[in-house]
Design a protein that fits this description.
Helix content: 40-55%
Strand content: 5-15%
Order of helices and strands: HHHHHHEEEHHHEHEEEEHHHHEHEHHEEE
Distance between the termini: 69 Å
Largest sheet: 7 strands, mixed
Structural class: alpha+beta
Radius of gyration: 30 Å
Oligomer: single chain
Length: 533
């Protein structure tokens, strides 16, 4: 059927280059070929629709934060829309290119030229479909991976938002705290043992993050007062030593012990994650919002998927049951297996040196997993991620956590590692850990506020006794997310006074005062990549 405004007589170009050129132009500027062929109304309509679409996209980009846009793209609604819409739009574009070629009357070309023009137009039509097909395939893979990873019910019930907080996903908090765990799963081990334990406290406005690390071999763990574990171990987590003298009553085995003893929880199973979250939160004096457990060898597959990590190995790292493995010293790109041995090996080393190497791996991942790398290796990364992560983060929160993660990537990320000589793993000074945590969180919050020209002097609340070197303010407690549990808020005096710290149940732990009675020094905050060469 011909356009009603089309002039009589052939209007198509007579040369091969012109036919191919106008067809190619139509692929990026719909309607151009139709105008050249005399199909004015069709050409103008196509160009108008295309211009409106471009203006709409431009308006979205100018009025929407790119982080928020990235957050929308991981929602189930948008992924489903892309899965269906991208192939449909691709097919429409394919038809557009073919029709543009047809109205240019390639039949007016001589025999050989017709064949060449047809082949080129066909390849061009297929080429314009590929990006749409790729987008649909990426959306399908993303949907599957996210549904698999974020399918677990939350470890703690989410509090109901008040009417004034319905539009605030953080429910009035300025910080969220996510427990990052590395699980050392193995065929000869029973249960989950968390060999890497870090709490990321993140400022939701700027992304400024404090990474708080606890050693796996922390002893005499104190549990939330009134909790089943506290009733079982009122004086701290203590079990008889193994025949070889090794101990299983360390921080890394809290999850496994809780899972193995459902009778402590009234018969409820799978209480390990919740118990460890509450325990770490109680140790730091913070509320832990969610956890993410990374399978160490799943992480190795993820590192392979992004093409390895460029790391500096300061000295030869020996590993293996018989010391048969070696990661040589030097700066180069390491594959997943070598990266994991670099991060995990304790041969001729100790837990604290290993924690430092793990921090370097996290820093390298943060810097080197850029968007271009992720897009170019998307399928491999998605497949590796499905085997990598166990978490209680609700799927709807991804819309808000993805923009926050993008902020973290360009924000200030610092670290406090609670290892000797800062603390003794055998006889931890719990009050000191909480005081230094409050100081580090407050410093991060103050830096965020200063950057936004919102900083205000920290004034202790009436009745607060501030420990020298530790700033006590609401920014380090309730308003910064530094609360002990969803049901209780740590008061400033509980954080900064002499060891009397409020636990997740709201009870004061009067048995954790500093043994020496000396003022607590400022938190030894480090950049996350400090010492990583």
């Amino acid at each position: 059927m011909q356009d009603g405004s089309r002039r009589p007589g052939p209007r198509g170009p007579r040369r091969l280059g012109a036919v191919v050129g106008w067809t190619a132009l139509s692929a990026i500027l719909p309607g151009a070929g139709h105008l050249r062929a005399g199909w004015r109304r069709t050409g103008i309509a196509l160009l108008s629709v295309y211009a409106l679409l471009l203006l709409g996209v431009l308006w979205v980009l100018l009025t929407t934060d790119l982080g928020d846009l990235a957050g929308l793209l991981v929602t189930s609604t948008w992924l489903s829309a892309i899965t269906i819409g991208a192939p449909v739009l691709g097919l429409a574009w394919f038809v557009l290119v073919v029709h543009s070629f047809t109205v240019l009357r390639p039949g007016m070309l001589r025999g050989p030229a017709q064949a060449v023009a047809g082949v080129i137009a066909g390849l061009l039509a297929i080429t314009v479909v590929l990006p749409f097909g790729l987008a649909g395939q990426y959306a399908t893979v993303s949907q599957s991976a996210l549904d698999r990873i974020f399918s677990a019910p939350p470890a703690t019930p989410a509090p109901r938002a008040s009417s004034s907080q319905e539009s605030d996903p953080w429910e009035g908090r300025t910080r969220v705290n996510i427990l990052l765990l590395g699980g050392d799963a193995d065929t000869h081990r029973i249960g989950v043992r968390t060999d890497s334990i870090n709490l990321a406290s993140i400022d939701v406005r700027t992304g400024n993050t404090v990474l708080l690390g606890l050693p796996r071999n922390l002893e005499n763990i104190r549990f939330v007062p009134g909790s089943p574990m506290a009733k079982r171990f009122p004086n701290g987590f203590r079990l008889p030593a193994n025949p070889d003298g090794s101990r299983e009553d360390l921080l890394f085995s809290v999850w496994e012990y809780a899972d193995s003893h459902p009778e402590l929880f009234g018969g409820r199973k799978n209480q390990g994650a919740r118990t460890l979250m509450e325990t770490v939160g109680y140790t730091f004096g913070l509320r832990v919002d969610w956890y993410a457990l990374v399978n160490m060898w799943g992480l190795a597959r993820l590192i392979d998927a992004i093409g390895g990590l460029r790391l500096t190995v300061p000295q030869d790292i020996v590993f293996g049951k018989y010391n048969e493995g070696l990661v040589k010293a030097g700066t180069r790109r390491l594959g997943g297996a070598d990266t994991m041995w670099f991060a995990r090996s304790r041969t001729f080393s100790d837990d604290y040196t290993r924690m430092g190497r793990q921090r370097c791996v996290l820093s390298a991942l943060l810097q080197q997993a850029d968007p271009a790398t992720v897009l170019s290796r998307f399928n491999r990364i998605a497949l590796a991620t499905r085997e990598l992560l166990q978490t209680d983060i609700p799927r709807p929160m991804l819309e808000h956590l993805v923009p926050l993660a993008l902020k973290v990537k360009s924000a200030e990320v610092t670290s406090v590692q609670f290892v000797p000589p800062l603390i003794s793993t055998g006889y931890p000074d719990w009050a000191k850990i909480r005081s230094l945590t409050a100081k580090a969180v407050h410093t991060s919050s103050t830096a965020s506020a200063s950057r936004e020209r919102l900083a205000a002097p920290a004034t202790p609340t009436s009745g607060t006794t501030a420990t020298p070197g530790v700033t006590s303010s609401p920014g380090a407690t309730a308003s910064s997310g530094a609360t002990a549990s969803p049901s209780a808020t740590t008061s400033p005096s509980a954080t900064a006074s002499s060891g009397a710290t409020a636990g997740p149940s709201g009870a004061r732990d009067t048995g954790t005062a500093s043994k020496s009675g000396k003022p607590t020094e400022p938190a030894p905050v480090k950049e996350i990549n400090e010492g990583c060469a």
